[in-house]
Amino acid sequence: MQQQEAAELREQLGAMGLMFDASGAITNYAAATSAALQQYAAAIEQYNAGLIDETTLKVYEKSYENFKKLLERYDKLYYTEMQQTQEKLDEIRRKELANNLKAWEVEIQIHLDKEKIKRD
Prior knowledge:
The chain is mostly helical. It has helices spanning 2-15, 29-48, 54-119.
């Protein structure tokens, strides 16, 4: 489920200029966030100069806010939530291996005890 959400966010953010490496890490974070901010700042300048109306400025503002919201969600998902999930899965695997080892040790001990009983 997290993988699917991350893929959807990567697609949306990719359309906004972000690039990702094979693992999903953002490779142009600073450049993309700077470009988004500059685009919004340019719209403010155009509005102040009377070149665009308030409605158009609101479109730029909503676009920038959406970019920030998606980026913040991806950051939290990729760098925190998915890492925590992976750590939990690793812990479960370690416990499973420890349980399998314990079961194997018990099985060997039972076999050794049976052999001892047969000798006695």
